[in-house]
Amino acid sequence: MIGLVILYCTIFLSLWTIGAMMLVNNSANPHTRWFSLFLFITGCASFSVVLNVQVLPWMRMSSVLSADAIESVRLFAMTVWGIEYYFVPYLLLMCSLVFTRLFRRRTIILFSLLLPVPILVYLAAVPPLYPELQLGGHLSFRILSGAYFLMGLAIYGLRYLTEQNASHKKNSFRTAAALIPCISFLYVTDYVGIERVIISREGMEMTSNNMWQFNFMISLVFAAFFVYYGMKYGFMGIKLRIERQKLDYSMKQLTQGALILNHTIKNEVQKINYLSSRMSSAVANNDKEEMWSNLSQLDRVAEHILTMMNQIKERTGDIALHEEEYRIADVLEFSLLALEPMMQAKQISIRKEVQCDPVIVCDKSHIHEVLNNLLVNAWDALTPGNGKITVSLLEAKREVVIRVQDNGAGISKENAARMFDPFFTTKKGGASYGLGLNYCYGVMQKHGGSIRLAETEPGRGTRMEIRFPAKRVRRMTAPDRSAALRAGV
Questions:
Q1: What is the pTM of this model?
Q2: Does 25 or 58 have the greater pLDDT score?
Q3: How far apart, in Å, are the Cα atoms of 325 and each of 103, 134, 157, 330, 415?
Q4: How far apart are CA 347 and CA 139, in angstroms?
């Protein structure tokens, strides 16, 4: 009996610990929140077993505890096991639907309200759940729970098969590989193998093929998946890089902030060099209009450098935002105009596609630097004379999306999986530190948004995408037609 209690304590403690770790590390992710709830509820069955076989018998033998106290614990044990048995299939299906990232928040809420209805109808038809709880014994619920489990696992599998993004596809594979065997085993042991469980005032009675005694293997296998994949690659929204923890945190932050500032100044100096060359030509041709245009752009470059230098303290630690309302089209236009000399020198054409005109609460300097990084990376990937960059501003599911697409060299699958890692770079020479995209990732996370590699193919080009959440959008209007139809910068 003691060995059984230890095993079942291991089950619920391991599941609850993993759920808590996922929630602490990535609570902003909807799938993490749903899956953490799934793990907490799944652990309730083994917790209830411990209460029924160890705690309640001890309480009944005690002469100190009242009958009401004993009944309260029994009622709690019945409730948590009943919730686990009847609603775990529903929770798995909800997790899979959220994992697809195909549905809006309102649709997910609608699913969450409609999918429990068949289970609630079933519960209304079964014998009274109190004063004794009976689980199992009905073929109809085996079929119903099996359908939920099957749909949930099928959706996880289909997500892996249809995923286009290389890094997301690997995560989908790891998730499916962990869940399919564990959930299949759970269904066989708890929904097929257990014929009937009765929790009465006299104790717990179970009729089964005793396969449930091996349930601890499910939690051990899942914990092994979690630890192995979490430490090596990243799993269920958690990425544990043990080797990075060996670095001193404060020194790493200081070094990273200084190098990012160096990266910013390097990009701006490139613009100054191109502007200087154009100004020399304008002086030689006595072209005053060109001179004033170049001087105006120099002012913008100098202003951006000074702004970034004033924020160096923030860059050496956590990113801090100075937020105001801005027309994101103006921020985008500023970034494009600042890069115009570099684009012209390399004979690269830029096309703007403006489909909306949103006002967003953001930090203009940080967002300008994010756009600058994406545009410079696209510029680096292009060959002189044949390069083309398309910048799109659009609305998608109430979110604001900016896409930067080029027809350059593209990115390999191996490099795509690591492109947001700090200090990772494919550029040659000592001037590249591999911090640009890592910084961009941090800025967009601070804004509650995201940055991702939307599409790439070696030799065919790359499309990057940044998204601002709907909660940051203050106004959304139709774009100015003349600006929307501009073919280049």
A1: 0.54
A2: 58
A3: 28, 58, 42, 11, 36
A4: 71
